[in-house]
Amino acid sequence: MVSHDAKPTQHTAFRLAEKHFKNRALKDKYPSLRKYQDKLIDLSRPDQQEDDPLWKAGWWSPWNDYDGSNSSWKAWVFGKGKGKERDLGERPILSTSEMTEIQLSDGKAGWIVAPGCILIPNFLPIDKQLDLLHASIAEYTQPPSPLSVSTHYTVPPNLFQLYSEHPDHVVQPKHLTLGSKQVGGPENAPRPRKTVETEPASVIGYDEIIARNKTWAGDAPSDKVKERTVAQLMAEMRWANLGWVYQWSTKSYDFSSDKPIPFPPDLADICKQVVRSVRWSEIFLKEPDSRSCGWESWAEDYEPDTGIVNFYQIGDTLMGHVDRSELDPARPLVSLSLGHSAILLLGSASRHDPPRPIVLRSGDCLIMSAAGRQAYHGVPRILEGTLPAHFEPADEDNMDLKAAKRFIATARVNINARQVFPPGFKRPPIVDSTCSTCI
C-alpha cells in the first residue's frame, strides 16, 4: 500500500512552499490556502466574502484541503465534489498580529510585513489601475524599450495599436528577415529563466560590471521560432524593460550608453509619491540593523531609473530570487499589481527559512527596502478566477480600453521600479577600446 505520509525531503522551506502553490496535478482542486492560513497575508480583500473574487473562484473551498490521512486520500482525489456544485466554504479571519500597521503621510495605511517591506493595500484607485494597465501594454512596450520577444521577433513599433485593431496581423521571426549569420541555433531558442545565484553589484562594483559586459554582444535570435499573429505575440510577451536596460544573460545592467532610456515620468511620480509617503523613521529607528541603509534621504532623493513590467499569463510563475543588480542594495523597490491576484512568497535572506504567502491583489503596492531587498521572493501562482469586476468589458469602453481588458482577462501585470545608482554617484567616462584616437 502506498503511504502518503510526509517524507524527508532535500528541498528548502522556500522550495516546498513554491511546489505547494504551483501544484496543478488535480484539475478540479486548487492548492490549499488553509495549509498556510496561519502565515497568509491578504490585506486588501473585500469586507464581505460574497464580494471577494478569490472566494467566489473557490480558493477557500474545503474541497482543496486534504487532511493527510491515508484512509481519505483516494476519496479526496477521486470522489469529493464529483458531480456536485463546488462548496465554496467559509473564508477565515486572517491574523495580523505579526505585522505592524503604519500611517502614511497621505492618509493611507501601510503594513510592515517583513523587515524593510511595506504592503499598502488598495494603493491604486480603479481609474489609476485602468490608466496603468493601458500604459503598461500600449506605452511601455514601445521602442526603444526592449521586450522579451524582441530577441526573436521583428516587433512592430505600433504593437498595441495592431493588437487593438488588427490582432491577426502576422509578425515574422528575425530568422526570416535577417541574414543567417545573425541567427543562432537551437541553443538560442526561448527557454524558461532559471534562478542563478549572482554576486551583488554593490559588492563587485561598477568597473567590474563594465569589464564583464564588454564581450557581451546580445542574444542571437533563434532559427526555431515560428511566425506569430500580434495576438499570439502579446500572449507570449513576458516583460518590458524601462530605463536602464537589464541584461538577463549576464544578470547586470548595460551601462554602455551615456544615459538610460527615459523612465516614464508619470510612473516615476507614482513611485516617488509612495516612497515620500512612508515615515521611514518609524520603521528604521526600531530596527538597529537597518539604521545605516541611508533611509534618511529617500523621501527627497529617491529617483527610479529602471524597471521591469512583468506580464504573467494564467499558469506562469516566477522562481524565488533576490534582486542584486543595483549598486545601492538598500534603496526601495516599488512594486505595483494589476489584474488577477497572485501569491507572492516573501522569505528571508535564506531559502531555508519558511516564507510568508501574500495575496497581492490589483491595486496593491509593495515596497521592498533595506534588509527586505535581500529577501528571497517569488510568484508561484496566479490565482485563477480572481480578475476584479472593473476589468470586465463595458459598453462605454473605447477601442483601446477594450483591447487592454481583452489582454488582462487572462493575465496579471506587475510593474516594479528601482534606482540603480546611489545619489551622487559619478560614472567614469566610457572608453571605446576600438577607437584608435581615444586616450
Automatic annotation (TrEMBL):
Annotated organism of origin: Kwoniella dejecticola CBS 10117
Region entry Disordered, spans: 178-198
An example Gene Ontology molecular-function term: metal ion binding
Descriptive protein name: Alkylated DNA repair protein AlkB
Annotated Fe2OG dioxygenase domain residues: 303-415
Cofactor(s) for this UniProt protein: Fe(2+)
Keywords from the UniProt entry: Dioxygenase, Iron, Metal-binding, Oxidoreductase
UniProt cofactor note: Binds 1 Fe(2+) ion per subunit.
Superkingdom: Eukaryota
Record flagged with keyword Lyase: no
Cellular component, GO, one term: cytoplasm
Residues that bind Fe cation: H321, D323, H377
